[in-house]
Specification:
A seven-stranded mixed β-sheet has the order 2-8-7-6-5-3-4, with helices on both faces. A four-stranded antiparallel β-sheet has the order 9-10-13-12. α5 packs parallel to α6, α5 packs across α9 and α11 runs parallel beside α13. It is of the alpha/beta class. The structure holds pyridoxal-5'-phosphate. The site of pyridoxal-5'-phosphate has 13 residues, from α5.
Length: 399
Amino acid sequence: MATPSTFKSRHVSKKASSFTESVIREMTREALKHGAVNLSQGFPDFSAPEDIKRKAMEAIANDINQYAITWGSKDFRDAITRKTKWYLDLDIDPETEVTVTCGSTEGMIAAMMATVDPGDEVIVFEPFYENYGPDAILSDATPRYVSLQAPDWTFDRDELRAAFNEKTKAVIVCNPNNPTGKVFTQDEMEYIAQLCQEFDALCFTDEIYEHILYPRDGADIRHISMAQIEGMRNRTVVVNSMSKTYSVTGWRVGYCIGPPEITSGVRKVHDFLTVGAAAPLQAAGAYALSLPAEYYDHLQTEYRVRRDLLVPVLEQNGFSTFVPDGAYYIMTDISAFGFNNDVEFTKYLIREIGVACVPGSSFYSVSQNGQQQVRFCFCKKDETLNRAAERLSKLRSRI
Ligand SMILES: Cc1ncc(COP(=O)(O)O)c(C=O)c1O
Protein backbone atom coordinates (compact mmCIF):
# COMPACT_ATOMS: atom_id res chain seq x y z
CA MET A 1 0.00 0.00 0.00
CA ALA A 2 2.66 2.53 0.99
CA THR A 3 4.74 3.99 -1.81
CA PRO A 4 7.99 4.61 0.01
CA SER A 5 9.89 7.54 -1.36
CA THR A 6 13.02 6.31 0.37
CA PHE A 7 14.48 4.96 -2.87
CA LYS A 8 18.10 5.80 -3.50
CA SER A 9 18.73 8.11 -6.42
CA ARG A 10 21.63 10.37 -7.15
CA HIS A 11 19.09 13.03 -8.12
CA VAL A 12 17.27 13.04 -4.80
CA SER A 13 18.89 14.60 -1.74
CA LYS A 14 19.83 12.52 1.29
CA LYS A 15 17.33 14.56 3.27
CA ALA A 16 14.42 13.94 0.89
CA SER A 17 15.37 10.26 0.65
CA SER A 18 15.29 9.80 4.38
CA PHE A 19 11.56 10.10 4.98
CA THR A 20 8.45 8.73 3.34
CA GLU A 21 5.43 10.54 2.00
CA SER A 22 2.83 11.29 4.64
CA VAL A 23 1.02 8.09 5.62
CA ILE A 24 -1.98 10.15 6.78
CA ARG A 25 -2.41 11.83 3.42
CA GLU A 26 -1.77 8.58 1.61
CA MET A 27 -4.72 7.03 3.50
CA THR A 28 -7.00 9.65 1.95
CA ARG A 29 -5.88 8.54 -1.51
CA GLU A 30 -6.42 4.89 -0.54
CA ALA A 31 -9.90 5.71 0.77
CA LEU A 32 -10.80 7.39 -2.52
CA LYS A 33 -9.43 4.46 -4.51
CA HIS A 34 -11.46 1.88 -2.61
CA GLY A 35 -14.59 3.93 -1.92
CA ALA A 36 -14.01 3.80 1.83
CA VAL A 37 -15.52 6.22 4.34
CA ASN A 38 -12.55 8.43 5.09
CA LEU A 39 -11.88 8.71 8.82
CA SER A 40 -8.14 9.04 8.26
CA GLN A 41 -6.95 12.55 7.40
CA GLY A 42 -8.20 15.32 9.70
CA PHE A 43 -10.31 17.54 7.48
CA PRO A 44 -14.02 18.26 7.80
CA ASP A 45 -16.42 16.97 5.15
CA PHE A 46 -19.01 19.56 6.21
CA SER A 47 -19.18 23.13 4.94
CA ALA A 48 -17.06 25.94 6.29
CA PRO A 49 -19.15 28.69 7.94
CA GLU A 50 -21.12 30.68 5.33
CA ASP A 51 -20.11 34.10 6.65
CA ILE A 52 -16.39 33.26 6.55
CA LYS A 53 -16.71 31.95 2.99
CA ARG A 54 -18.59 35.10 2.00
CA LYS A 55 -15.78 37.30 3.36
CA ALA A 56 -13.26 35.43 1.20
CA MET A 57 -15.43 35.84 -1.90
CA GLU A 58 -15.90 39.55 -1.15
CA ALA A 59 -12.15 39.98 -0.73
CA ILE A 60 -11.55 38.53 -4.19
CA ALA A 61 -14.34 40.65 -5.69
CA ASN A 62 -12.83 43.72 -4.01
CA ASP A 63 -9.50 42.98 -5.64
CA ILE A 64 -7.49 41.83 -2.69
CA ASN A 65 -5.66 39.62 -5.15
CA GLN A 66 -2.03 40.68 -4.99
CA TYR A 67 0.73 39.76 -2.56
CA ALA A 68 0.00 40.75 1.01
CA ILE A 69 2.90 42.01 3.14
CA THR A 70 5.16 38.97 3.31
CA TRP A 71 4.68 38.40 7.05
CA GLY A 72 0.93 38.91 6.83
CA SER A 73 -1.64 41.59 6.05
CA LYS A 74 -2.00 44.21 8.76
CA ASP A 75 -5.72 43.49 9.29
CA PHE A 76 -5.07 39.82 9.85
CA ARG A 77 -2.10 40.37 12.17
CA ASP A 78 -4.17 42.86 14.17
CA ALA A 79 -6.99 40.32 14.43
CA ILE A 80 -4.51 37.66 15.60
CA THR A 81 -3.25 40.09 18.24
CA ARG A 82 -6.76 40.86 19.52
CA LYS A 83 -7.79 37.23 19.58
CA THR A 84 -4.60 36.17 21.37
CA LYS A 85 -5.30 38.81 24.01
CA TRP A 86 -8.88 37.63 24.39
CA TYR A 87 -8.20 33.87 24.45
CA LEU A 88 -4.75 33.60 26.02
CA ASP A 89 -4.50 36.98 27.73
CA LEU A 90 -1.16 37.58 26.03
CA ASP A 91 -0.07 40.97 24.74
CA ILE A 92 1.72 40.56 21.44
CA ASP A 93 3.01 43.11 18.96
CA PRO A 94 1.59 42.53 15.47
CA GLU A 95 4.50 44.46 13.98
CA THR A 96 7.30 42.36 15.43
CA GLU A 97 5.89 39.13 16.85
CA VAL A 98 3.53 37.67 14.26
CA THR A 99 4.26 35.89 10.98
CA VAL A 100 1.39 34.69 8.80
CA THR A 101 2.30 31.43 7.07
CA CYS A 102 0.85 28.89 4.66
CA GLY A 103 -0.83 26.82 7.35
CA SER A 104 0.75 25.81 10.62
CA THR A 105 2.66 23.27 8.53
CA GLU A 106 4.78 26.05 7.09
CA GLY A 107 4.82 27.83 10.46
CA MET A 108 6.45 24.86 12.20
CA ILE A 109 9.11 24.23 9.57
CA ALA A 110 9.86 27.96 9.22
CA ALA A 111 10.27 28.25 13.00
CA MET A 112 12.59 25.27 13.06
CA MET A 113 14.65 26.38 10.07
CA ALA A 114 14.96 29.83 11.63
CA THR A 115 16.36 28.56 14.91
CA VAL A 116 18.00 25.15 14.56
CA ASP A 117 21.62 24.52 13.51
CA PRO A 118 23.08 21.17 12.41
CA GLY A 119 23.84 19.08 15.48
CA ASP A 120 21.07 20.66 17.57
CA GLU A 121 18.57 18.30 19.13
CA VAL A 122 14.82 18.76 19.23
CA ILE A 123 12.70 16.82 21.71
CA VAL A 124 9.49 15.33 20.32
CA PHE A 125 6.81 13.60 22.38
CA GLU A 126 5.63 10.37 20.78
CA PRO A 127 3.21 9.30 19.45
CA PHE A 128 3.65 12.48 17.41
CA TYR A 129 1.99 14.30 14.56
CA GLU A 130 3.90 12.84 11.66
CA ASN A 131 5.16 16.15 10.18
CA TYR A 132 7.58 16.69 13.06
CA GLY A 133 9.92 13.89 11.89
CA PRO A 134 10.50 15.33 8.38
CA ASP A 135 10.49 18.85 9.89
CA ALA A 136 13.44 17.79 12.03
CA ILE A 137 15.30 16.27 9.08
CA LEU A 138 14.68 19.25 6.82
CA SER A 139 15.87 21.70 9.46
CA ASP A 140 18.95 19.60 10.35
CA ALA A 141 17.72 18.83 13.85
CA THR A 142 18.32 15.50 15.53
CA PRO A 143 15.02 14.37 17.05
CA ARG A 144 14.99 12.88 20.59
CA TYR A 145 11.78 11.08 21.39
CA VAL A 146 10.05 10.98 24.75
CA SER A 147 7.05 8.67 25.24
CA LEU A 148 3.56 9.68 26.07
CA GLN A 149 2.30 6.58 27.83
CA ALA A 150 -1.18 5.13 27.31
CA PRO A 151 -3.85 5.10 28.60
CA ASP A 152 -3.67 8.70 29.78
CA TRP A 153 -0.63 9.67 27.70
CA THR A 154 1.41 11.05 30.57
CA PHE A 155 5.18 11.30 30.29
CA ASP A 156 7.83 10.11 32.68
CA ARG A 157 9.50 13.17 34.14
CA ASP A 158 12.88 11.48 34.49
CA GLU A 159 12.74 10.34 30.86
CA LEU A 160 12.01 13.90 29.75
CA ARG A 161 14.77 15.35 31.93
CA ALA A 162 17.22 12.77 30.54
CA ALA A 163 16.36 13.85 26.98
CA PHE A 164 17.53 17.42 27.68
CA ASN A 165 21.23 18.21 27.35
CA GLU A 166 23.50 21.00 26.14
CA LYS A 167 22.61 20.22 22.50
CA THR A 168 18.86 20.63 23.07
CA LYS A 169 17.59 23.50 20.96
CA ALA A 170 13.88 23.04 21.51
CA VAL A 171 11.00 20.84 22.51
CA ILE A 172 7.90 20.45 20.35
CA VAL A 173 4.62 20.35 22.25
CA CYS A 174 1.41 19.62 20.38
CA ASN A 175 -1.38 20.68 22.72
CA PRO A 176 -4.23 19.62 22.46
CA ASN A 177 -2.47 16.64 21.05
CA ASN A 178 -2.76 14.84 17.75
CA PRO A 179 -2.98 11.81 17.69
CA THR A 180 -3.70 11.05 21.36
CA GLY A 181 -6.29 13.69 22.29
CA LYS A 182 -4.21 14.53 25.37
CA VAL A 183 -4.52 18.01 26.84
CA PHE A 184 -1.39 18.89 28.81
CA THR A 185 -2.01 19.98 32.42
CA GLN A 186 -0.65 23.13 34.02
CA ASP A 187 1.68 20.99 36.08
CA GLU A 188 3.06 19.20 33.02
CA MET A 189 3.49 22.45 31.14
CA GLU A 190 5.34 23.97 34.07
CA TYR A 191 7.67 20.99 34.28
CA ILE A 192 8.49 21.24 30.56
CA ALA A 193 8.96 25.00 30.96
CA GLN A 194 11.31 24.53 33.88
CA LEU A 195 13.52 22.22 31.81
CA CYS A 196 13.49 24.62 28.84
CA GLN A 197 14.73 27.37 31.12
CA GLU A 198 17.31 25.20 32.85
CA PHE A 199 18.76 24.07 29.50
CA ASP A 200 18.19 27.37 27.66
CA ALA A 201 15.91 25.63 25.13
CA LEU A 202 13.02 26.94 23.05
CA CYS A 203 9.52 25.50 22.78
CA PHE A 204 7.64 25.16 19.49
CA THR A 205 4.05 24.70 20.47
CA ASP A 206 1.48 23.49 17.96
CA GLU A 207 -1.84 24.80 19.23
CA ILE A 208 -4.09 24.34 16.24
CA TYR A 209 -6.67 22.42 18.30
CA GLU A 210 -6.77 25.12 21.02
CA HIS A 211 -10.57 25.45 20.77
CA ILE A 212 -11.44 21.77 20.45
CA LEU A 213 -11.66 20.58 24.05
CA TYR A 214 -14.03 18.31 25.99
CA PRO A 215 -14.13 19.45 29.62
CA ARG A 216 -15.31 16.74 32.03
CA ASP A 217 -16.00 16.36 35.74
CA GLY A 218 -13.00 15.62 37.86
CA ALA A 219 -10.46 16.91 35.35
CA ASP A 220 -9.22 20.39 34.62
CA ILE A 221 -9.42 20.30 30.81
CA ARG A 222 -8.50 23.72 29.46
CA HIS A 223 -6.12 25.02 26.87
CA ILE A 224 -2.86 26.33 28.24
CA SER A 225 -0.40 27.87 25.84
CA MET A 226 3.28 27.43 26.60
CA ALA A 227 3.64 31.18 26.00
CA GLN A 228 1.45 31.75 29.09
CA ILE A 229 3.77 29.86 31.40
CA GLU A 230 6.05 32.04 33.48
CA GLY A 231 9.45 32.57 31.88
CA MET A 232 8.38 31.06 28.53
CA ARG A 233 7.01 33.99 26.55
CA ASN A 234 10.48 34.82 25.19
CA ARG A 235 11.45 31.28 24.35
CA THR A 236 8.22 30.02 22.79
CA VAL A 237 6.98 30.01 19.21
CA VAL A 238 3.23 29.41 19.13
CA VAL A 239 2.20 27.78 15.84
CA ASN A 240 -1.46 28.11 14.97
CA SER A 241 -3.79 28.08 12.00
CA MET A 242 -7.26 28.75 10.65
CA SER A 243 -7.49 25.17 9.37
CA LYS A 244 -9.22 23.38 12.23
CA THR A 245 -10.93 26.17 14.17
CA TYR A 246 -12.73 27.56 11.12
CA SER A 247 -12.98 24.30 9.10
CA VAL A 248 -10.89 25.63 6.21
CA THR A 249 -7.98 23.18 5.97
CA GLY A 250 -7.66 23.88 2.22
CA TRP A 251 -7.07 27.59 2.67
CA ARG A 252 -3.55 27.12 3.99
CA VAL A 253 -3.52 30.09 6.34
CA GLY A 254 -1.64 29.82 9.62
CA TYR A 255 0.57 31.93 11.81
CA CYS A 256 3.49 31.92 14.24
CA ILE A 257 3.74 34.06 17.34
CA GLY A 258 7.19 34.49 18.82
CA PRO A 259 9.49 37.06 20.39
CA PRO A 260 10.86 39.70 17.96
CA GLU A 261 14.33 38.19 17.56
CA ILE A 262 12.96 34.76 16.61
CA THR A 263 10.16 36.29 14.54
CA SER A 264 12.68 38.16 12.40
CA GLY A 265 14.33 34.79 11.60
CA VAL A 266 10.98 33.12 10.94
CA ARG A 267 9.93 35.95 8.63
CA LYS A 268 13.08 35.61 6.53
CA VAL A 269 12.69 31.85 6.13
CA HIS A 270 8.99 32.27 5.39
CA ASP A 271 9.63 34.99 2.80
CA PHE A 272 11.91 32.78 0.75
CA LEU A 273 9.88 29.62 1.21
CA THR A 274 6.50 30.99 0.16
CA VAL A 275 6.50 34.83 0.03
CA GLY A 276 3.15 34.78 1.74
CA ALA A 277 -0.21 33.18 2.41
CA ALA A 278 -3.21 33.87 0.15
CA ALA A 279 -4.15 37.56 0.54
CA PRO A 280 -7.96 37.30 0.16
CA LEU A 281 -8.04 34.45 2.65
CA GLN A 282 -6.11 36.53 5.16
CA ALA A 283 -8.83 39.18 4.74
CA ALA A 284 -11.44 36.54 5.57
CA GLY A 285 -9.20 35.41 8.42
CA ALA A 286 -9.32 38.88 9.95
CA TYR A 287 -13.10 38.48 10.07
CA ALA A 288 -13.01 34.89 11.37
CA LEU A 289 -10.61 35.67 14.20
CA SER A 290 -12.93 38.46 15.34
CA LEU A 291 -15.93 36.15 15.84
CA PRO A 292 -17.51 36.19 19.31
CA ALA A 293 -17.00 33.55 22.01
CA GLU A 294 -20.26 31.80 21.00
CA TYR A 295 -18.64 30.64 17.78
CA TYR A 296 -16.05 28.65 19.72
CA ASP A 297 -18.62 27.33 22.22
CA HIS A 298 -20.72 26.04 19.34
CA LEU A 299 -17.69 24.44 17.66
CA GLN A 300 -16.86 22.63 20.86
CA THR A 301 -20.41 21.41 21.41
CA GLU A 302 -20.62 20.05 17.88
CA TYR A 303 -17.31 18.21 18.21
CA ARG A 304 -18.38 16.69 21.52
CA VAL A 305 -21.49 15.26 19.83
CA ARG A 306 -19.35 13.75 17.05
CA ARG A 307 -16.86 12.30 19.52
CA ASP A 308 -19.66 10.80 21.59
CA LEU A 309 -21.14 9.24 18.47
CA LEU A 310 -17.94 7.55 17.28
CA VAL A 311 -16.39 6.36 20.57
CA PRO A 312 -19.20 3.86 21.41
CA VAL A 313 -19.31 2.67 17.79
CA LEU A 314 -15.63 1.78 17.96
CA GLU A 315 -15.98 0.18 21.39
CA GLN A 316 -18.98 -1.93 20.32
CA ASN A 317 -17.09 -3.20 17.31
CA GLY A 318 -13.97 -4.46 19.05
CA PHE A 319 -11.65 -1.46 19.44
CA SER A 320 -10.35 -0.29 22.79
CA THR A 321 -10.47 3.47 22.67
CA PHE A 322 -8.46 6.20 24.33
CA VAL A 323 -11.20 8.80 24.73
CA PRO A 324 -9.77 12.20 23.75
CA ASP A 325 -9.94 15.30 25.96
CA GLY A 326 -9.13 17.50 22.99
CA ALA A 327 -8.60 17.63 19.18
CA TYR A 328 -10.72 15.46 16.88
CA TYR A 329 -9.05 12.05 16.78
CA ILE A 330 -9.54 8.77 18.59
CA MET A 331 -6.53 6.53 19.10
CA THR A 332 -7.56 2.90 19.45
CA ASP A 333 -6.06 -0.44 20.33
CA ILE A 334 -6.74 -3.19 17.79
CA SER A 335 -5.32 -6.20 19.66
CA ALA A 336 -8.75 -7.86 19.79
CA PHE A 337 -8.73 -8.41 16.00
CA GLY A 338 -5.60 -10.56 15.94
CA PHE A 339 -3.79 -8.82 13.07
CA ASN A 340 0.00 -8.93 12.89
CA ASN A 341 0.24 -5.20 12.59
CA ASP A 342 -1.56 -1.92 12.07
CA VAL A 343 -0.76 -1.65 8.34
CA GLU A 344 -2.30 -5.06 7.59
CA PHE A 345 -5.32 -4.12 9.67
CA THR A 346 -5.71 -0.74 7.96
CA LYS A 347 -5.56 -2.36 4.52
CA TYR A 348 -8.24 -4.82 5.58
CA LEU A 349 -10.39 -2.06 7.05
CA ILE A 350 -10.19 0.06 3.89
CA ARG A 351 -10.62 -2.73 1.36
CA GLU A 352 -12.93 -5.22 3.09
CA ILE A 353 -14.88 -3.10 5.57
CA GLY A 354 -14.86 0.20 3.68
CA VAL A 355 -13.56 2.56 6.37
CA ALA A 356 -10.20 4.36 6.30
CA CYS A 357 -8.11 5.08 9.39
CA VAL A 358 -4.42 5.82 9.96
CA PRO A 359 -1.98 3.07 11.01
CA GLY A 360 -0.61 3.79 14.49
CA SER A 361 2.99 3.12 13.48
CA SER A 362 3.08 6.37 11.50
CA PHE A 363 3.02 8.24 14.81
CA TYR A 364 6.05 6.46 16.32
CA SER A 365 9.79 6.52 15.66
CA VAL A 366 9.86 2.74 16.21
CA SER A 367 6.98 1.28 14.25
CA GLN A 368 6.47 -1.71 16.58
CA ASN A 369 5.27 0.70 19.25
CA GLY A 370 2.23 1.56 17.16
CA GLN A 371 1.56 -1.76 15.53
CA GLN A 372 -1.55 -2.52 17.57
CA GLN A 373 -2.97 0.99 17.27
CA VAL A 374 -4.91 2.91 14.63
CA ARG A 375 -6.31 6.46 14.65
CA PHE A 376 -9.76 7.58 13.54
CA CYS A 377 -10.85 11.19 13.03
CA PHE A 378 -14.39 12.42 13.68
CA CYS A 379 -14.42 15.83 11.98
CA LYS A 380 -17.19 14.52 9.73
CA LYS A 381 -20.92 14.92 9.14
CA ASP A 382 -23.21 12.73 11.25
CA GLU A 383 -24.25 10.90 8.10
CA THR A 384 -20.59 10.07 7.35
CA LEU A 385 -20.01 8.82 10.88
CA ASN A 386 -23.23 6.79 10.71
CA ARG A 387 -22.18 5.26 7.40
CA ALA A 388 -18.85 4.32 8.99
CA ALA A 389 -20.74 2.85 11.97
CA GLU A 390 -22.82 0.65 9.70
CA ARG A 391 -19.72 -0.67 7.95
CA LEU A 392 -17.72 -1.14 11.15
CA SER A 393 -20.47 -3.36 12.52
CA LYS A 394 -19.23 -6.03 10.07
CA LEU A 395 -16.15 -6.32 12.28
CA ARG A 396 -18.16 -7.87 15.08
CA SER A 397 -17.93 -11.31 13.56
CA ARG A 398 -14.12 -11.12 13.90
CA ILE A 399 -13.93 -10.64 17.65
C1 LIG B 1 -1.12 18.77 15.08
C2 LIG B 1 -1.26 19.30 13.72
N1 LIG B 1 -0.48 20.30 13.31
C3 LIG B 1 -0.57 20.82 12.08
C4 LIG B 1 -1.49 20.31 11.16
C5 LIG B 1 -1.55 20.93 9.81
O1 LIG B 1 -2.21 22.13 9.92
P1 LIG B 1 -2.31 23.23 8.77
O2 LIG B 1 -3.47 22.89 7.92
O3 LIG B 1 -2.53 24.50 9.53
O4 LIG B 1 -1.03 23.23 8.03
C6 LIG B 1 -2.34 19.27 11.53
C7 LIG B 1 -3.30 18.72 10.57
O5 LIG B 1 -3.90 17.70 10.77
C8 LIG B 1 -2.22 18.76 12.85
O6 LIG B 1 -3.01 17.78 13.26
